[in-house]
Amino acid sequence: MATIKDIAKAAEVSISTVSRILNLDKTLNVSEDTRKRVLSIAEEMNYVTIKERKGKVSNYTIGIVCSFTETKELSDPYFLSIRMAIEKRCLEENIGFKSLYLSKIFNDDLYNYKDLNGIIAIGIFQKDEILKLKDLSENIVFIDSSPEEWEFDSVVVDLKYGAKKSLDYLYSLGHKNIGYIGAKVTPHNSNDGLELINYRELTYIEFMNKINNLKEEWIFKGNFTPEDGYALMKKALTLKEIPSAFFIASDPMAIGAYKAIQEAGYTIPEDISIVGFDDIPTAQYLSPSLTTVKVYTDFMGETAFNVLMERIKDERLLSKKVVLPVNLVIRDSCKSI
């Protein structure tokens, strides 16, 4: 479905101009030719206003289920932005939705969710949790994980590429002593039939082996939180040989690492270079601004919504896995040595 942005691009005018023309703003000072061109393009693209969309009766309701707690979501903009992108698409398409946390579903009556036509599941889920979701709907799209790919749709990002790009960049600056700070992965029971791989850590290990410089004492693992980033970096700074650079698997962890480095009297990037992962809004405002891998969370949410609606409306049987690209955003937290 066409958006105001699409029309603005085709008409070669600003988004605000298109919006005001489509809303019949008589105070807008534009030529009649421009007004007619915008209206003509909107008609050709079958543009439907938000007001008209809201007037339609929705036949669908989806569940947006988070595997983590509300507190964790609020502390990590990565997850919050994914959910908000999904909710935005629901509102645009007049699709009913229920935003839920996994713990609530396990303690609630399944009858309360009998109206769900599909589920978008954000995060990592255990086997019993997936079975619980299946009780609510057979139409499930996972974001950030892809369990049982032969059965469920999923939307993930190219973590291996992002990690490799980060490590290549640090190496190009002369860094060979590179540490890793990331999250622990709790293995699933082998009977689950699920495989959970930490691609950021795996890529780091492969890279360091390739340059013949892998050292187990340079690998630190905890949770994707600023608190653990802080604690793990403090531990790293007690090493006899401190790496000249760190690849950190999430921006919230990098924020904590910044604090630990500065408290210890070191500076970034003069003493230690840092590369993060996610590109949360705060990253560009750190001092120095954080070089990090950008994950397009809005696009993840939008893509998951589209995949789910396709599954529901078209009754597609074959599952689909969508791998979205990431991009290294170079700022000021790395130095050539």
TrEMBL record:
<keyword id="KW-0238">DNA-binding</keyword>
<dbReference type="GO" id="GO:0003677">
    <property type="term" value="F:DNA binding"/>
</dbReference>
<dbReference type="InterPro" id="IPR010982">
    <property type="entry name" value="Lambda_DNA-bd_dom_sf"/>
</dbReference>
<keyword id="KW-0805">Transcription regulation</keyword>
<protein>
    <submittedName>
        <fullName>LacI family DNA-binding transcriptional regulator</fullName>
    </submittedName>
</protein>
<feature type="domain" description="HTH lacI-type">
    <location>
        <begin position="2"/>
        <end position="58"/>
    </location>
</feature>
<dbReference type="InterPro" id="IPR028082">
    <property type="entry name" value="Peripla_BP_I"/>
</dbReference>
<dbReference type="Pfam" id="PF13377">
    <property type="entry name" value="Peripla_BP_3"/>
</dbReference>
<dbReference type="InterPro" id="IPR046335">
    <property type="entry name" value="LacI/GalR-like_sensor"/>
</dbReference>
<keyword id="KW-0804">Transcription</keyword>
<dbReference type="Pfam" id="PF00356">
    <property type="entry name" value="LacI"/>
</dbReference>
<dbReference type="InterPro" id="IPR000843">
    <property type="entry name" value="HTH_LacI"/>
</dbReference>
